[in-house]
Amino acid sequence: MPITRRGALTGLALLPVALYGSPLVRAAGPTLPKVDIVSFEPALTESLLGLGVAPRAVVNAGFYREFVAQPEMPDDVLDLGPSIEPNLEYLQRLAPGLIIGTSWQLEGTLLRRIAPLRTFDIYTTNAEPYRNAGQVMLDLGALVDRRDEAQALLEQTDRLLADLRAKLTSISDRPVYIARLNPDGRHLLLFGAKGMYQAVLERLGLRNAYQGRTNAWGGSPAVGIEALLEHPEASLLYYTNPREAVAAQRRLDISPIWRALPMVREGRAQALPRFYPSGGLLTAQRLALSITEQLLAMEADHA
Amino acid sequence: MPDHTSRLRRQPAWLALGLLFIALALSVHQGHSLLAHASWTNAFGPVAPGDLPALLVRYSYLPRLVISLLVGAALALAGVIFQQVLRNPIAEPTTLGVASGAHLALAACAIYAPSLLDGGQESVALAGAGLGMLAVLGLAWSRRLSPVALILSGLIINLYCGTLSTLLVLANHEVLSNLFIWQSGSLNQNSWQDVYHLAPRLAVAALLAALLARPLALLGLNDAAAGSLGMSPNRMRLVALAVAVALSASTIASVGVIGFLGLAAPALARLAGARSLRQRLIWAPLFGALLLLLADQIVQGLAALLGGEMPTGIFTALLGAPLLLVLLTRLHETRANPPTQRAAVHVTPPKRTAWILLALLALAVFLALTWGRGPDGWYFSGGAEFDALLPWRAPRVAAAFAAGILLALAGTLMQRMTGNPMASPEMLGVSSGAALGGILALLVVPGFNPLVLLLAATFGALLALLAIVALSWRSAFAPDRMLLTGVALGTLLNAFAAVFMVSGDSRVLLMLSWMTGSTYRIDASQAVVISALAVLFLLVTPLCNRWLAIMPLGAERARALGISLSGSRLVLLLLTAVMTAAATLVVGPLSFVGLIAPHMARLLGAQRPIAQLIISALLGGTLLVLADWLGRNLVFPWQIPAGMFATFVGGPYFMWLLARKR
């Protein structure tokens, strides 16, 4: 589904106002002051960068640059290797002042021999990632002595989501599916309970059409595209892995079921940019903006 | 009269009718839940765009029904051809390296040349499948493509391709999530395009098979008879194999890997009374079509109960693994006499070899503890820096060393016991059993608890051992039979690993890292335990000296010397299983050290059991210490798991071993 010109215009109009003062539009660069912290988790890296400081080293820097991307990470942040097996000897030589990560990354490990550890969890059993992400931002702000910035970011995000919610009231009765399409053109993954997409949808006053089983960060098992027929009245926002987008679209374009999906036929399906689905508060901002932008573009096309 | 009734009872048609009836009943039931009877006609006529139930029936339910028939028939036809040409009852796409070759090719393309896949997966899958098949044939060539050699070659190619694919997944998991689904074979459809794609291919293959039926039947007899056809038997075989590989690759590219149909359908046809090749060429595809239809309807029925759909390929693999075990017991042992151990290449006295190896080992340990790679390149650590790094390096070095010893000892026992230089603990399936236990624990128990994993893996290894004992008891632990149970257990392992991967579980990477044999998570206490086990078994295994000396001479000789074969084999089997389980927990289910070390020990002149045990233990330990050290440092700051690194070295060694002329 191509992004319509009108859709793009609506979105572009929305962006600068909403993001005024946000770290997302601030120019990044090597000028960012460093803190003596190593981050194991992209969501925490994102939040630190959002607060205007850069960690000394992160786990799997390539992953952050490709899948989280914003706020931009300075080039001189060191890479510790794979997220499941960061290079411990390297870490020991760096001798950082603090290692931060999620509980499952840090608890029960021998990392405490290298540096003090602190865990920050956004995706927990309380299934409120948005609220947790806000709290994590405040805690990180306290940690790097940027309390005011953290508080400001939190308030800004709350305000942004409230503003967007107001814009969406006219279409809030329509449930929304959020999906990642597989390139086979047959399967997709739906985002639901416990994940950031669902949390943002709720904040925006929208209802997630997918109410099924999800894993710890809100992803469903792979399902066939006909699963979207459970709520034929819903809108669909979807993304594909950029490298596989061509194959996926080619398969979908010739699928009678895809073309017959009410959301596709009636122009209620829109492509989303790809986001890191387990991100922090800034990811939530971008999700909210993107979702609103696409839903309003759809609405505008129908008007 | 009795002749007549038995002929009637053995008619494949009755069984086919029965299957058809059940499959149709389930299909109608399934379709009925989609659509009220009244609107069935709507689904076949012009469908209104808003008539969703009719659309679903027309473009999802019906094509899925037809594709399951087509895929089932295609795989069964490919199976019959493979089995006839290779004279091997368990030849089929998944046992011949065809499926794993296709998988590796697709994974590599998805990462390095995604644009190749934009036009569809078929050509890429075909290239990979063809290469996999060629590799298997090449490896088994020198053993005249004997059934056991072929299946072992298939196993090795599957392991090697699987390891390479896993390495790609570990480094690029975001990109390859689609492959998990593909690997587990899903028949879900949302258009008729796969049907349109596959149907003509199946028709052409069926036509070619019909033309080839007579020559192929003669090939089954002997080459001289086939020579009278005026075409070289080998060329005929090649054409037939090409047809089967192409058909498998097309199927695999459309719906993914559906294992075991190529085994099950021909076996069923034979059971139902289809004796001649011509009969099997007709009935096996029919049974294949019906079986897959039935399996897929059951999967869809189960989806309602389980709240999510299991990919059909996983379901057939789960059903197929036990079937494979049954078929294995029918595999003829082709060797007339047991292989004798070859004369040593070197004549160095074992004692001097042992000293040299000890020196090498010391050097390896020294390097592994003191040299590492940092952002500025290699560096040596001494003094305080050494003390600081030791807590990280020592457990990994010790664990790798101990695991190497255990695998080498287990391998020596196996090779002595079976008289087969190709035997290794990985092939026995005990390592697969251990890994299977670990995966099931991950599926059931939340979190990632090393202790739970350890218990589950030990339990899995013991269960695998019991299965091996139960299945090999009647054949008095005949060497080849035992080796091949490993194939079935390995397949089961892969099926469960696939269940885990498609479940979307966030711990999938942890599981992959564990399965590829990483020493990363070994702590000091685990290292102490595994080292203690290594020492214990170093002391225990030489006690089996007499058995180990006599067994390779062959069953008759051993009996003549008054050795109870079943009893001694049982003890050796138990030792092997415990050692393999312990080592698997450290370096994962595949490493090939258990294969290489004993073999190299013999090449170095260690002929007597105790000498072979000690020298192969030294070699095994050194190999894994080096593999771990290089794996930790070569791709800094990333790491290659020790087990996987050893596989890269061990795989080619094994292939060379297998391909060498006997």
Automatic annotation (TrEMBL), chain A:
Keyword match Coiled coil: yes
Subcellular location: Cell envelope
Domain Fe/B12 periplasmic-binding: 36-299
InterPro entries for this protein: ABC_transptr_periplasmic_BD, Bact_iron-sidero_bind
Pfam family, one: Peripla_BP_2
This protein's UniProt keywords: Coiled coil, Ion transport, Iron, Iron transport, Signal, Transport
Residue ranges the record marks as coiled coil: 147-174
Source superkingdom: Bacteria
SUPFAM superfamilies: Helical backbone' metal receptor
Major subcellular location class: other
Family: Belongs to the bacterial solute-binding protein 8 family.
Stated name of the protein: ABC transporter substrate-binding protein
From TrEMBL, chain B:
Coiled-coil segments on the chain, per record: none
Pfam families: FecCD (PF01032)
Keyword Glycosyltransferase: no
Subcellular localization(s) per the UniProt record: Cell membrane
UniProt keyword Transmembrane, yes or no: yes
UniProt keyword annotations, A-Z: Cell membrane, Membrane, Transmembrane, Transmembrane helix, Transport
Primary location recorded for the protein, binned into one broad class: membrane
PANTHER family cross-referenced by the UniProt entry: FE(3+) DICITRATE TRANSPORT SYSTEM PERMEASE PROTEIN FECD-RELATED, FERRIC ENTEROBACTIN TRANSPORT SYSTEM PERMEASE PROTEIN
Name used for this protein in its record: Fe(3+)-hydroxamate ABC transporter permease FhuB
Annotated gene: fhuB
